[in-house]
Write a structure and sequence with these properties.
The complex is a heterodimer of chains A (about 270) and B (about 350).
Chain A lengths: L2 H21 L1 H4 L6 H31 L2 H19 L13 H12 L1 H19 L6 H14 L1 H9 L6 H26 L17 H15 L1 H34 L3 H5 L1
Chain B lengths: L3 H17 L3 H21 L5 H23 L6 E5 L8 E4 H27 L2 H6 L6 H30 L11 H24 L11 H22 L4 H25 L12 H22 L21 H6 L14
Antiparallel strand pairs in B: 1-2
Classes of the chains: A mainly alpha (about 270), B mainly alpha (about 350).
Chain lengths: ~270, ~350
Amino acid sequence: MNKNRLLRLGTDLFVICLGMLSLISPFIFPQASTLNNQAATFPIMISLIILLCLLIVIFEAQSSLLDSKMIAFLAVLTAINAGLRFLENAIPGPGGFSPTFFLIILSGYYFGSRIGFLMGAMTLLISALITGGIGPWLPGQMITAGWVGQSAVLVTFLVNKFALRDKPGEIILLSAFGALWGMLYGVIINLWFWPFLGAGVGQTFTQTASALENLQRYVVYYLATSLVWDISRAAGNTLIISLMAKPVLKILHRFKRRLSFQNQEVIRR
Amino acid sequence: MMNAFVWTLWLLAGLIFLLSTRNPIYLIITLAGLFILGNRLAKAKHISAWVRSNLRFLLTMLLLSTLINGLFSHAGETVLFTIPPSWPLIGGNITLESLAYGAVNGLVIGALYILFNIINLALSIKQITRLIPRAFHPIAMMVTIALTFFPSIQRRAREIKEAQMIRGNPMKKISDWLPILIPLLVTSLENAFLLAESMTARGFHKQVDLRTPRNLISLILGAFAVFSGWILQLYRYPAWITIVLYLIGGGLILLTLILIGKQTKITRYHHEGWTRLDILMSSVILVYLISFAYVSLADRLSTLSYSPYPYISIPVVQTLGVLFCLLPVFPMVLPRYD
């Protein structure tokens, strides 16, 4: 393993560990003392640490990947994807359904983990800028959407390992992956806000409770408030990937060949 | 137009205040100020019904938060009524205190949302994009291109949709959208290649190589120091350790970004300057922040916190606390400032 790959792997591991530790901090650091004030600072501190994680990955990715072609290509793809968010109302689908994940997953699957991460994170940033959705919730949304794209490389690995390229198995795997992230996205996004919702007995976060007890509270909270929403997102992802992935992958393949012209190194990464 | 950095400072001060207090009276005063400021900015931008839509959001959050806390948390001594304990999830006493606690949470969430909404209103997209540090120049370039392309992509999508509808595409099923997505992707990505070529022709051809392990490691160490400071704070270690770690972490990150930024040569078509009013406003906000830090650390403002448990009580108010609620007024004190 060369130095660059080692550095990238180390950065990824650090960011995933730190980001996840921040998000699951209510479960593993119940020592937060002053009930009211600590509960209030939780989401803002989590957002701050996630923002720092985002800066690290984006810095690493931009330094190793972005030449003029890649910048233009990703910018336009991101603008299209941000535009798809506005189609949420136009495309017939239940609440929670969002067509944005499909391009993020396909980008990560076809262009690799870094491009997938940038695609996810930047889509959320661009649409937040357009809709005036800048807020403390944005870093959490950006990093989770980034992880959606980054982890799509696992599908690439499975497809290559079992020689499923251009076979129905490829689309089935991608659809299953979309369904999985449809659920996971909601689970992770809720973590940012959940400790802030209140304290006391019941299904809300309690500092004095054990990690397992808080996890149970979170599960109950999640089932009560988000499950239906996330199921429709997962179903929407599955449907949209199974219907549209094949022709879109053909287009990405065509442009990948053109991107690789003059700059093989970018594509190899 | 007020400088974007002054607005960022204002946002920071607002965040710190809102996250430090649970006193409903302070929150209501701050919210009133935010609504007045927001309304003024919305009127200047000819945006109608800003107050109504934000008020609707605030009331929804208030209602939701009150209901969720009231139904799920059964703490408190003033029992209003009881839901049979056999009912899953919500069975138990519904208390006035848990409803009040939920309402206070709703006020904080609503105020945070409106605070950021005002920032979105006050700053143009161009100003927000400029806030991206120079060290992230390629990313800022990407954001600018995406924002520039966005309207034309939307227009093209509309044109393709109309053409499809003329050809009899009913646009009712998800699969009906494929004939829109495919031409949209192809034409837009073709445009991206044209843009890349013109960028190369104008000298943006070299692969940006800002990465040296030293820079990356500095950023990683900085983030780790901030994280450690926070965790130690949770474990009630002496406050100075946390402060030192925050300073080390923040300083390391800031220094690294400044040094990398200096290596990036950029030119500005329009430079956003600092007017005398900007300097005055940022000085006022800095004084506000320092004073607030002092009174909080010296425990001079005990009324910031409020808990309705175990028995609900009327929140106590201090004049000093009311003065700190006047943050939203700052950008309004100067007539026609914005």
